[in-house]
Amino acid sequence: MKVKLILLLLCVGILGLSQNIYAQTNRTVSGYVMDASNGEALIGVTVLVKELNAGGVTNPYGFYSITVPEGEYTLIYRYLGYETIQKSVDLTEQNQRFDIRISEATEQLEEVIVTGERADVNVSQVAMSVEKLGIETITKMPALLGEVDVVKSIQLLPGVSTVGEGASGFNVRGGGVDQNLVLLDESPVFNSSHLFGLFSVFNPDAIKDVKLIKGGIPAQYGGRLSSLLDVRMKEGNSQKFSAQGGVGAIFSRLTLEAPIIKDKLSFIVAGRRSYIDVLAKPFLSDDLSNSVFNFYDLTSKVNWNINDKNKVFLSAYLGRDRFEAADLFGSNWGNRTLSLRWNHLASEKMFINTTAYYSNYDYRLEVGNPEEDAFDWKANIQTYSVKPEMTYYLNANNTMTIGARATLYEFAPGETAAIVAGQQLPPFGMPLMYGLESGVFVGNEQKVTDALSLQYGLRLSSFTYMGEATTLEYADAEEPGTRRQPIEGSEVVYDKWEPITTYSNLEPRFSVKYQFNELSSIKASYNRMAQYIHLISNTTASSPLDIWYPSTNNVRPELADQVALGYFRNFKDNMYEASVEVYYKDMRQLVDFVVGADLLLNTYLEGDLMEGIGRAYGTEWYLKKTRGKFNGWISYTLSRSERKTMGINNDEWYAARFDQTHNLSLVAIYELSKKWNVSSNFTLISGTPASFPSSTYEIQGYSPAHNPSNMRNNYRIPAYHRLDLSITYDPESKRRWDGEWVLSIYNVYNRRNPFSIYFQPNADRRPENVVTDNQAVQLSIIGSIVPSISYNFKF
Amino acid sequence: MRKYYSIYIGLIALLGLASCEDIVEIDLEEGETQFVVDAFINNQFKEQQIRLSYTKPYFQSSRADAVVGATVTVEELNGSGRVLSFTDPDEDGIYTWMPASEADTLMIHARTAEGVKGDFYENQYRLEVQHGEYTFESYTSIERVPSIDSLKLVTVEASLFFPVETIVGELWATDFQGKDDFYWLKTWKNGRLLDKVQEIVLVHDIIPGLNNNPLSDGTPFIPPVRLGVNPTADADDAFNTPFYEVGDSIYVELHSITGTGFNFMSEMQSNMSNGGLFAPPIVNVPTNIIPMNEKSEGKVVGIFCGSAISTIGVKITEQPPKDDSFGF
Fold first, then answer.
1. CA distance A529 to chain B (A)
2. Greatest mean pLDDT among A197-206, A498-507, A742-751, A775-784
3. In this structure, are residues A694 and B57 in contact, taking their beta carbons and an 8 Å threshold?
4. CB neighbours of A387 closer than 8 A, spacing ≥ 6?
5. What is the 3-state secondary structure (H, E, C) of A610-674?
6. What backbone phi and psi angles, to 5 degrees, belong to B236?
7. Cβ within 8 Å, pair B31-A706
8. Are residues A239 and A219 in the same domain?
9. Which of A329, A420, A694 sits opposite B222 (nearest CB)?
10. Residue whose C-alpha is closest to residue B141's, from B288, B254, B302
11. Comparing A244-248, A599-603, B289-293, which segment has the lowest mean pLDDT?
């Protein structure tokens, strides 16, 4: 099967290249498309060659390149919300470079959209299972405590879900939260949440564009099974100084951007900080006066436009959650990323981007006073990576991408230091672990005929677990699902950088689009993904203390194959976009945990890990009104996500914790007038599965929960539904200062949505000689209506 | 760790996002009934009890039905080879045996001087239970227990974390050299066992909870263990009751338990405190009771575990000195 597919890919590739042989002299028009007001590169601008009804779109750096037979043409640059520009181009003599600045539409949107012959991009592009949200849409949606949230917004799209408030991350098409590759300017972010799942780490003021790919993932991306969330930061205004910010219930934000040298060098710095501790300070007693409860993030970027051919971007992110109660207790965690990117135009047809990044996620927990008794625990994951990638705009019909990636990981799964009665105990922890993940890929996007387009590629990925390390072998479990014991004498010592185990995977990727007419198309895709690092978490919500762990001699990489099929149809001049997709995802070698697994600071952790398989399938329905005073979307997902692991649930399939049969979202944004905007969203989600006991028994007066049938996730908690509202008032001002008030109401009808139901004895002291009294407790993380007001400004 | 999570939950509440917990009514399917063996034996010159009962529906608060008419024996595998017969003349499911004299009490399994466990570890006593066609067996040992050095009392002034002045007890004892000593610390306040789920104090060498660190061994217990002799507050009391006051009595027993017993008790404790944002999936508490025939397969839960016991008791007669180094 695999071999056949590769052969097919090769044939198609040759077919694509062979078209070149008979072509006449070709010319190329290329350049960058930018926002006229601030110089920001615009991603996904459609550039259409009117005469040929062909063209391209700008890449994440705003670059486009179109190769056509020599001649005179008209180019149309089109981008939603911006003026459409037409440009004549003479390509009879030579290639042309057109850097274009387009302005935001000043009139109502409908009036400026030129009714083109072409269908909108969602129908015409090859890529399927892609969700794009512009930051303008995200900022208009109601948000918890008025904090505009990238991660929360994508959860309203088809195929994306969460197990509830307070759960970090998100689930895509039945995958775990660790199966999403979250990239901020190409650098991975390992924990995308502040305060657990309540707020995302991305400052909306610094974000330009958010794209989620759920299926048909192109060959340049790899390393996670389920999705890619590509978050792109603004570059910084290259025209003039500007600032924006806001004061909300949780955060205050300030973003500054300005040119250092106009059109050449610009920067953006965006900071947010929660200030609950500042407000609380006067009320804290002496022993707590130096307490810290806050979370903050700082996002910054410098953008240097060296010359026509070279651009450099340096982006940095620093985010932290800190909870420290005087000398008694301290805990903090956060991400740090630094990425350096270099765009180089080797020719009009060849765009090369090289990214080098460093990323670090760490946490720390401290208890006690170092002079007497104390405990200090830290863990982290660090990555260093280089990623050169070349896009070759071969001709009007083929765009090739070739690249490689090498990532060095250093895992510190946990280290502790303890002091007992003033005596320092020897430090204890799990040793550092090293891994090298590499990948080479080649991909091509090919227009075969006007109707048929393909995107195909191949990625060869590999992971080497390296020393220095002492490896162990584990005996088979006595019974499936139970702990495996290390084999005595099986220790093997490896030197620094000495390879221990290498895994390699060939990952084919394929997408096809057949377009019936301007308004409708059908698409299909297949992708294989390999994931070499694993989040070790078996809790309801993943916690900041969960560790990342590499594939080792005892832990194999996780693999997934996904097929998807979709029908895309637009109505009324693309005012309405509709799509239906079905998908099936097959997952293997998924990390699972033995019964009663001990995941924190366990030297023999690998003995507590097991392998399982998974399958997820579903159908996603989406209808979006793209413009007009009233816009928004309806998204509905019907899906199933199941796991099967020997030793769990009597070796039968069971619903994964994040399995949600129905998931419905409605988002409506209504522009009442120039001053008033109203938006709302409504979510209805089936209850997530949970394991409930049937019996109990008495041991020493205690009565534990017991389930003789051993069934996992045998019940479901009640359904989740919630309505949010937001009203924005933007008093028009003649001056430069532009302010707006946002009133948001989260959970309008005050529902106590269950996060989980758990079973516990009554915690109060019971009468003597009476057994514990058992009860079922429903936990709601946000159990009330949450109104808030915030003020945002821009100048 | 769970304690810190609840601090986080508290913080979320602090942010005005009222997280809340409601007691709800749930209809649970009835599970298959199984035998329950509750067999903790010890080295004391006291009546030894083994309780046999049946599993019951989860929400049933009345006592479980007793298993009557069973044959219960404990065989001594190192030494005398005697077989102790536990009997239940009053048919309440509690099968008892009384050592005839102090010399007849159950004995501690001695490790070597280096702390090596030897062949009799968890293989010193064999329990056999027979009821009709059902037969079960299980093995355990009675392990060494250190003596208790002192029960130190201090007065801690009111603070934000603990808003009333209180007397705090601190238990000092030193773990033996040699890995894998397991203990269960039980405390009685004014004659009443502190038996809330959070008050189960389980110790692996010197720390509460499982401890794979080969180096944390053989020192005094670390603070969470030492402070494990203090009661926890009831939820609605909001820490307004002192742990101890002048006039109270404290009685502490330090029980050695086996690795299997430790595992059983910690699994049972997590099972009964499973909840909140970061709850792992609920799992059945493992058992060390082994079915001896096919009919008995999957028919039994429970624990057989031996203990040696050290004790200390004090009556608080005067206000102990103040100590501000306690972090509450």
1. 28
2. A498-507
3. yes
4. A186, A354, A355, A356, A357, A403, A404, A405, A406
5. EEEEEEEEEEEEEEEECCCCEEEEEEEEEEEEEEEECCCHHHCCEECCCCCCEEEEEEEEEECCC
6. -85, -5
7. yes
8. no
9. A420
10. B288
11. A599-603
Query: Does residue A159 form part of some domain?
Result: yes
Domain shared by A192 and A245, yes or no: no
Nearest-by-CA chain A residue for B31: A694
Residues of A in contact with B24 (CB under 8 A): 757, 776-778
Query: Do A699 and A681 share a domain, yes or no?
Result: yes
Residues within 8 A of B (CB atoms), A 83-142 only? none
CB contact under 8 A, B31 and A276: no
Report CA-CA distances (Å) from B186 to B41, B202, B230, B252, B312. Answer: 15, 9, 10, 6, 11
Listed residue (A207, A203, A266) closest to A240, CA to CA: A266
pTM, two decimal places? 0.86
Mean of the per-residue pLDDT values of chain A:
86
Q: Which of B14, B283, B302 sits opposite A276 (nearest CB)?
A: B14
Question: What are the Cα distances from residue A393, in Å, to A57, A71, A77, A220, A345?
Answer: 12, 18, 18, 16, 11
Residue A402 lies in a domain: yes
Total number of domains constituting chain A: 3
Residue B228, Ramachandran bin (φ over 0: left; ψ between -120 and 50: alpha; else beta): alpha
> Does any domain span residue A583?
yes
The structure tokens 């061994």 sit at: B217
Please choose, from the candidates A70, A69, A80, the residue with its C-alpha nearest in 3D space to the C-alpha of residue A46: A80
Q: Which of A231, A262, A286 is the last residue of a domain?
A: A231
How far apart (Å, rounded) are the C-alpha atoms in residues A698 and B61? 11
- Closest alpha carbon to A203 in A263, A264, A250: A250
B282: nearest Cα among B58, B37, B60: B58
The answer to whether the beta carbons of residues A48 and A124 sit under 8 Å apart is: no
What is the domain-level CATH number for residue A68?
Answer: 2.60.40.1120
Q: What is the DSSP string of B157-172?
A: ---SSS-S-EEEEEEE
What distance in Å separates the CA atoms of residue B176 and residue B40, rounded to the nearest whole number? 22
Give the residue numbers spanning the domain of A74.
2-117
Establish if A282 touches chain B: CB-CB under 8 angstroms.
no
**Maximum Cα–Cα distance for chain A, whole Å?**
99
Nearest-by-Cβ selection for B222 from A369, A418, A759: A418
Please answer whether residues A721 and A684 qualify as being in contact, where contact means their C-beta atoms are separated by less than 8 angstroms: yes
Q: Are A135 and A210 in contact (CB under 8 A)?
A: yes
ipTM of the complex: 0.93
Give the model confidence (pLDDT) of A11-45 as tens digits.
444 444 444 445 468 889 999 999 888 888 888 88
Q: Burial letters for B135-150: b for 16+ Cβ neighbours within 10 Å, e otherwise?
A: bbbbbbbbbebbebee
Tell me the C-alpha distance between A420 and A411, whole Å: 28
Q: Give the domain CATH number at A170.
A: 2.170.130.10
Cβ-proximal residues to B48 (8 Å cutoff; 6+ apart), any chain:
B41, B42, B84, B86, B96, B97, B98, B99, B106
- Out of A175, A197, A231, a domain closes at A231
AA identity, residue A538: N
Does residue A195 sit in the same domain as residue A284? Answer: no
Pick from A249, A365, A700: CB nearest B38: A700
Model confidence pLDDT, tens digit, residues B70-104 = 999 999 998 788 999 999 999 999 999 999 999 99
Q: What is the least distance, in Å, from the CA of B312 to any CA of chain A?
A: 21
Tell whether A695 lies on the interface with B, counting CB pairs under 8 A.
Answer: yes
Give chain A positions within 8 Å (CB) of B32. Answer: 708-709
Judge: B19–A779 Cβ closer than 8 Å, yes or no.
yes
Judgement on whether residues A212 and A236 belong to the same structural domain of the protein: no
